[in-house]
Amino acid sequence: MISILITIILCLPPILLLPSSFGLRLDHEHIAQIVDIKLRYRAAGVIIAVIAAVCVTLIPFPGKLATPIIFIALHSANWFVARRSVRRRKLANGWLDDEETKVREAGHSFMLPVLTLPLYLYTGGWLALLLAAIYLDTSWDSMPVQIPIHFDPGFKTDTWAPRNGGSVYFLTFLGLALSLVFLLICLFIRLPSFTRGKAFRTSHVATLATAIHALSWLQCLITLSFAYNQVAYLLPTLHDYEKPVSISSLVACVVMFVGGLCYVILQTGRYEHAARELFPDQLDDDDKKFYILGMFYYNPTDMRVLVNDRFGVGLDFNWARWQSQAFMLVVLGVIVAVIIPAA
Fold it and tell me: Are 127 and 275 within one domain?
Protein backbone atom coordinates (compact mmCIF):
# COMPACT_ATOMS: atom_id res chain seq x y z
CA MET A 1 0.00 0.00 0.00
CA ILE A 2 2.83 2.41 0.86
CA SER A 3 4.56 1.72 -2.46
CA ILE A 4 1.30 2.39 -4.35
CA LEU A 5 0.78 5.66 -2.46
CA ILE A 6 4.36 6.81 -3.15
CA THR A 7 3.99 5.90 -6.83
CA ILE A 8 0.78 7.91 -7.18
CA ILE A 9 2.26 10.93 -5.34
CA LEU A 10 5.41 10.99 -7.48
CA CYS A 11 3.38 10.59 -10.68
CA LEU A 12 1.38 13.75 -9.94
CA PRO A 13 3.96 16.59 -10.35
CA PRO A 14 4.67 15.97 -14.07
CA ILE A 15 0.90 15.96 -14.64
CA LEU A 16 -0.12 18.91 -12.47
CA LEU A 17 2.86 21.17 -13.18
CA LEU A 18 2.38 21.42 -16.92
CA PRO A 19 5.22 22.98 -18.94
CA SER A 20 4.04 26.26 -20.42
CA SER A 21 5.55 25.80 -23.88
CA PHE A 22 7.56 22.54 -23.74
CA GLY A 23 10.87 24.34 -24.01
CA LEU A 24 9.96 26.45 -27.06
CA ARG A 25 9.58 30.20 -27.37
CA LEU A 26 5.91 31.20 -27.38
CA ASP A 27 4.06 34.40 -26.56
CA HIS A 28 1.21 34.32 -24.06
CA GLU A 29 -1.44 34.51 -26.76
CA HIS A 30 0.16 31.58 -28.58
CA ILE A 31 0.42 29.52 -25.38
CA ALA A 32 -3.35 29.85 -25.09
CA GLN A 33 -3.65 28.17 -28.50
CA ILE A 34 -1.85 24.96 -27.50
CA VAL A 35 -4.28 24.04 -24.73
CA ASP A 36 -5.35 20.92 -26.63
CA ILE A 37 -1.73 19.69 -26.78
CA LYS A 38 -1.39 20.29 -23.04
CA LEU A 39 -4.59 18.37 -22.37
CA ARG A 40 -3.33 15.43 -24.43
CA TYR A 41 -0.03 15.59 -22.54
CA ARG A 42 -1.89 15.55 -19.22
CA ALA A 43 -4.18 12.70 -20.33
CA ALA A 44 -1.15 10.66 -21.37
CA GLY A 45 0.44 11.52 -18.02
CA VAL A 46 -2.61 10.15 -16.20
CA ILE A 47 -2.38 6.94 -18.24
CA ILE A 48 1.33 6.67 -17.36
CA ALA A 49 0.48 7.12 -13.68
CA VAL A 50 -2.12 4.35 -13.92
CA ILE A 51 0.38 2.06 -15.65
CA ALA A 52 2.96 2.76 -12.92
CA ALA A 53 0.40 2.08 -10.18
CA VAL A 54 -0.66 -1.19 -11.86
CA CYS A 55 2.98 -2.28 -12.17
CA VAL A 56 3.60 -1.56 -8.50
CA THR A 57 0.40 -3.37 -7.53
CA LEU A 58 0.66 -6.53 -9.64
CA ILE A 59 4.39 -7.12 -10.12
CA PRO A 60 6.12 -8.65 -7.10
CA PHE A 61 9.50 -7.49 -5.84
CA PRO A 62 12.17 -7.23 -7.19
CA GLY A 63 10.46 -6.90 -10.59
CA LYS A 64 8.54 -3.96 -9.15
CA LEU A 65 11.79 -1.97 -9.28
CA ALA A 66 11.44 -1.81 -13.08
CA THR A 67 8.48 0.57 -12.65
CA PRO A 68 10.63 3.75 -12.49
CA ILE A 69 12.33 2.87 -15.79
CA ILE A 70 8.92 2.35 -17.42
CA PHE A 71 7.72 5.63 -15.90
CA ILE A 72 10.73 7.60 -17.19
CA ALA A 73 10.63 6.03 -20.66
CA LEU A 74 6.92 6.72 -21.13
CA HIS A 75 7.16 10.27 -19.81
CA SER A 76 10.13 10.97 -22.07
CA ALA A 77 8.12 9.81 -25.07
CA ASN A 78 5.12 11.85 -23.92
CA TRP A 79 7.28 14.97 -23.54
CA PHE A 80 8.93 14.69 -26.95
CA VAL A 81 5.64 13.97 -28.73
CA ALA A 82 4.04 17.05 -27.14
CA ARG A 83 7.08 19.20 -27.92
CA ARG A 84 7.07 18.04 -31.53
CA SER A 85 3.37 18.90 -31.83
CA VAL A 86 4.00 22.39 -30.44
CA ARG A 87 6.94 22.85 -32.81
CA ARG A 88 4.87 21.85 -35.84
CA ARG A 89 2.03 24.19 -34.88
CA LYS A 90 4.46 27.00 -34.23
CA LEU A 91 6.05 26.66 -37.67
CA ALA A 92 2.71 26.17 -39.42
CA ASN A 93 1.27 29.37 -37.91
CA GLY A 94 4.46 31.43 -38.15
CA TRP A 95 4.77 32.04 -34.41
CA LEU A 96 8.39 33.22 -34.72
CA ASP A 97 9.99 36.23 -33.06
CA ASP A 98 12.66 38.34 -34.74
CA GLU A 99 15.54 36.12 -33.63
CA GLU A 100 13.83 32.90 -34.71
CA THR A 101 12.88 34.45 -38.04
CA LYS A 102 16.54 35.22 -38.68
CA VAL A 103 17.46 31.66 -37.68
CA ARG A 104 15.01 30.21 -40.21
CA GLU A 105 16.04 32.63 -42.95
CA ALA A 106 19.68 31.69 -42.40
CA GLY A 107 18.80 28.06 -43.12
CA HIS A 108 19.17 26.70 -39.57
CA SER A 109 16.73 23.93 -38.64
CA PHE A 110 16.89 24.18 -34.84
CA MET A 111 14.46 26.10 -32.65
CA LEU A 112 15.72 28.51 -30.00
CA PRO A 113 14.87 26.96 -26.61
CA VAL A 114 13.74 28.43 -23.30
CA LEU A 115 14.69 27.27 -19.82
CA THR A 116 12.48 24.37 -18.70
CA LEU A 117 12.93 21.69 -16.06
CA PRO A 118 12.18 18.03 -16.97
CA LEU A 119 10.57 17.26 -13.63
CA TYR A 120 9.69 13.66 -14.53
CA LEU A 121 13.40 12.76 -14.54
CA TYR A 122 13.62 13.72 -10.87
CA THR A 123 10.39 12.09 -9.75
CA GLY A 124 11.34 8.91 -11.62
CA GLY A 125 14.66 8.74 -9.77
CA TRP A 126 12.98 9.38 -6.42
CA LEU A 127 10.47 6.64 -7.18
CA ALA A 128 13.31 4.17 -7.78
CA LEU A 129 15.04 5.08 -4.52
CA LEU A 130 11.87 4.87 -2.44
CA LEU A 131 10.71 1.58 -3.96
CA ALA A 132 14.16 0.11 -3.29
CA ALA A 133 13.96 1.34 0.31
CA ILE A 134 10.52 -0.25 0.72
CA TYR A 135 11.84 -3.53 -0.70
CA LEU A 136 14.73 -3.50 1.76
CA ASP A 137 12.33 -2.80 4.61
CA THR A 138 10.14 -5.78 3.67
CA SER A 139 13.28 -7.94 3.34
CA TRP A 140 14.87 -6.80 6.60
CA ASP A 141 14.91 -10.24 8.22
CA SER A 142 16.61 -11.84 5.22
CA MET A 143 19.54 -9.41 5.36
CA PRO A 144 22.70 -10.43 7.22
CA VAL A 145 23.41 -8.92 10.61
CA GLN A 146 26.62 -7.42 9.22
CA ILE A 147 26.12 -5.23 6.14
CA PRO A 148 28.79 -4.92 3.42
CA ILE A 149 29.66 -1.25 2.97
CA HIS A 150 32.86 -1.40 0.90
CA PHE A 151 34.26 -3.70 -1.79
CA ASP A 152 37.76 -4.34 -3.10
CA PRO A 153 38.59 -4.18 -6.84
CA GLY A 154 37.44 -7.80 -7.19
CA PHE A 155 34.00 -6.93 -5.71
CA LYS A 156 34.78 -8.83 -2.52
CA THR A 157 33.55 -7.25 0.70
CA ASP A 158 36.41 -5.82 2.76
CA THR A 159 34.44 -3.62 5.19
CA TRP A 160 31.34 -4.47 7.19
CA ALA A 161 28.96 -2.51 9.40
CA PRO A 162 26.17 -3.52 11.78
CA ARG A 163 22.74 -3.72 10.19
CA ASN A 164 20.88 -0.52 11.04
CA GLY A 165 18.99 2.25 9.31
CA GLY A 166 22.12 4.19 8.43
CA SER A 167 24.01 1.29 6.84
CA VAL A 168 20.99 -0.17 5.03
CA TYR A 169 19.53 3.07 3.67
CA PHE A 170 22.78 4.97 3.15
CA LEU A 171 22.50 4.94 -0.65
CA THR A 172 18.86 6.03 -0.41
CA PHE A 173 19.76 9.11 1.60
CA LEU A 174 22.81 9.81 -0.55
CA GLY A 175 20.82 9.44 -3.77
CA LEU A 176 18.05 11.75 -2.56
CA ALA A 177 20.61 14.32 -1.39
CA LEU A 178 22.48 14.28 -4.71
CA SER A 179 19.23 14.49 -6.65
CA LEU A 180 18.14 17.52 -4.63
CA VAL A 181 21.53 19.15 -5.22
CA PHE A 182 21.11 18.63 -8.98
CA LEU A 183 17.56 20.00 -8.75
CA LEU A 184 18.70 23.12 -6.89
CA ILE A 185 21.49 23.66 -9.42
CA CYS A 186 19.01 23.43 -12.30
CA LEU A 187 16.54 25.73 -10.55
CA PHE A 188 19.36 28.17 -9.95
CA ILE A 189 20.39 28.01 -13.61
CA ARG A 190 16.81 28.86 -14.58
CA LEU A 191 17.12 32.27 -12.89
CA PRO A 192 19.73 34.11 -14.98
CA SER A 193 19.98 37.84 -15.40
CA PHE A 194 20.78 39.04 -18.90
CA THR A 195 22.26 42.48 -19.40
CA ARG A 196 23.94 42.11 -22.79
CA GLY A 197 22.78 42.12 -26.42
CA LYS A 198 20.73 39.64 -28.40
CA ALA A 199 23.74 37.64 -29.57
CA PHE A 200 24.74 36.93 -25.98
CA ARG A 201 21.20 36.12 -24.84
CA THR A 202 20.58 33.76 -27.74
CA SER A 203 23.67 31.63 -27.13
CA HIS A 204 23.54 31.89 -23.33
CA VAL A 205 19.91 30.79 -22.93
CA ALA A 206 20.48 27.91 -25.35
CA THR A 207 23.56 26.83 -23.40
CA LEU A 208 21.70 26.91 -20.09
CA ALA A 209 18.70 25.01 -21.50
CA THR A 210 20.98 22.29 -22.84
CA ALA A 211 22.89 22.10 -19.55
CA ILE A 212 19.67 21.72 -17.53
CA HIS A 213 18.54 18.71 -19.55
CA ALA A 214 22.00 17.10 -19.49
CA LEU A 215 22.27 17.51 -15.70
CA SER A 216 18.73 16.20 -15.18
CA TRP A 217 19.44 13.04 -17.19
CA LEU A 218 22.72 12.51 -15.32
CA GLN A 219 21.06 12.76 -11.90
CA CYS A 220 18.33 10.39 -13.07
CA LEU A 221 20.92 7.79 -14.02
CA ILE A 222 22.80 8.25 -10.74
CA THR A 223 19.68 7.80 -8.60
CA LEU A 224 18.64 4.72 -10.58
CA SER A 225 22.08 3.18 -10.11
CA PHE A 226 22.00 3.92 -6.37
CA ALA A 227 18.57 2.32 -6.04
CA TYR A 228 19.53 -0.92 -7.79
CA ASN A 229 23.01 -1.12 -6.25
CA GLN A 230 21.76 -0.96 -2.67
CA VAL A 231 19.31 -3.80 -3.32
CA ALA A 232 21.93 -5.97 -5.06
CA TYR A 233 24.50 -5.34 -2.33
CA LEU A 234 22.34 -6.09 0.69
CA LEU A 235 20.15 -9.06 -0.21
CA PRO A 236 21.91 -12.45 -0.29
CA THR A 237 19.55 -13.76 -2.98
CA LEU A 238 20.77 -11.04 -5.35
CA HIS A 239 24.51 -11.18 -4.63
CA ASP A 240 25.14 -12.80 -8.01
CA TYR A 241 23.91 -9.59 -9.63
CA GLU A 242 25.94 -7.09 -7.60
CA LYS A 243 29.00 -7.20 -9.88
CA PRO A 244 27.15 -6.75 -13.21
CA VAL A 245 24.89 -4.11 -11.64
CA SER A 246 27.88 -2.17 -10.29
CA ILE A 247 29.87 -2.37 -13.52
CA SER A 248 26.91 -1.47 -15.73
CA SER A 249 25.96 1.44 -13.45
CA LEU A 250 29.51 2.79 -13.46
CA VAL A 251 29.85 2.45 -17.23
CA ALA A 252 26.43 4.05 -17.78
CA CYS A 253 27.28 7.02 -15.54
CA VAL A 254 30.65 7.57 -17.23
CA VAL A 255 29.11 7.28 -20.70
CA MET A 256 26.28 9.61 -19.70
CA PHE A 257 28.70 12.16 -18.26
CA VAL A 258 31.01 12.13 -21.27
CA GLY A 259 28.11 12.00 -23.72
CA GLY A 260 26.26 14.79 -21.94
CA LEU A 261 29.38 16.94 -21.85
CA CYS A 262 29.97 16.41 -25.57
CA TYR A 263 26.30 17.16 -26.26
CA VAL A 264 26.43 20.42 -24.30
CA ILE A 265 29.65 21.49 -26.03
CA LEU A 266 28.35 20.67 -29.51
CA GLN A 267 24.98 22.34 -28.94
CA THR A 268 26.60 25.37 -27.33
CA GLY A 269 28.97 25.77 -30.25
CA ARG A 270 26.07 25.43 -32.65
CA TYR A 271 23.99 28.10 -30.94
CA GLU A 272 26.93 30.44 -30.38
CA HIS A 273 28.01 30.21 -34.01
CA ALA A 274 24.46 30.97 -35.13
CA ALA A 275 24.17 33.89 -32.71
CA ARG A 276 27.41 35.46 -33.91
CA GLU A 277 26.32 34.94 -37.51
CA LEU A 278 22.84 36.39 -37.03
CA PHE A 279 23.69 39.35 -34.77
CA PRO A 280 27.20 40.51 -35.73
CA ASP A 281 26.34 44.11 -34.87
CA GLN A 282 25.32 43.22 -31.31
CA LEU A 283 28.33 41.21 -30.17
CA ASP A 284 29.67 42.39 -26.83
CA ASP A 285 33.10 43.91 -26.55
CA ASP A 286 35.51 41.69 -24.66
CA ASP A 287 36.27 44.05 -21.77
CA LYS A 288 39.61 42.88 -20.40
CA LYS A 289 39.31 44.84 -17.18
CA PHE A 290 36.77 42.28 -15.90
CA TYR A 291 39.14 39.33 -16.36
CA ILE A 292 41.80 38.45 -13.79
CA LEU A 293 44.90 37.04 -15.51
CA GLY A 294 42.88 37.31 -18.70
CA MET A 295 40.80 34.24 -17.77
CA PHE A 296 38.75 34.63 -14.58
CA TYR A 297 35.67 36.82 -14.90
CA TYR A 298 35.30 39.22 -11.94
CA ASN A 299 32.61 41.88 -12.25
CA PRO A 300 30.93 43.09 -9.02
CA THR A 301 28.32 45.02 -11.02
CA ASP A 302 27.17 41.88 -12.87
CA MET A 303 24.54 39.98 -10.85
CA ARG A 304 24.96 36.77 -12.83
CA VAL A 305 26.80 33.84 -11.27
CA LEU A 306 27.22 31.84 -14.49
CA VAL A 307 28.59 33.58 -17.56
CA ASN A 308 29.71 32.53 -21.02
CA ASP A 309 33.24 31.19 -21.09
CA ARG A 310 35.61 33.73 -22.59
CA PHE A 311 37.53 31.11 -24.54
CA GLY A 312 35.73 28.42 -26.49
CA VAL A 313 32.27 27.32 -25.44
CA GLY A 314 30.65 26.56 -22.12
CA LEU A 315 30.08 28.43 -18.88
CA ASP A 316 32.30 30.07 -16.29
CA PHE A 317 31.77 31.69 -12.90
CA ASN A 318 31.58 35.34 -12.04
CA TRP A 319 34.03 35.18 -9.16
CA ALA A 320 32.70 38.41 -7.68
CA ARG A 321 29.55 36.60 -6.53
CA TRP A 322 29.52 34.80 -3.18
CA GLN A 323 27.98 31.67 -4.72
CA SER A 324 31.04 31.17 -6.93
CA GLN A 325 33.41 31.67 -4.02
CA ALA A 326 31.43 29.27 -1.83
CA PHE A 327 31.51 26.64 -4.58
CA MET A 328 35.30 26.90 -4.82
CA LEU A 329 35.66 26.60 -1.03
CA VAL A 330 33.54 23.44 -1.05
CA VAL A 331 35.63 21.94 -3.87
CA LEU A 332 38.87 22.76 -2.03
CA GLY A 333 37.45 21.29 1.17
CA VAL A 334 36.56 18.04 -0.59
CA ILE A 335 40.04 17.82 -2.14
CA VAL A 336 41.71 18.40 1.25
CA ALA A 337 39.41 15.86 2.93
CA VAL A 338 40.39 13.25 0.33
CA ILE A 339 44.13 13.98 0.31
CA ILE A 340 44.77 14.20 4.07
CA PRO A 341 43.52 10.66 4.98
CA ALA A 342 45.41 9.21 2.01
CA ALA A 343 48.63 10.87 3.19
Answer: yes
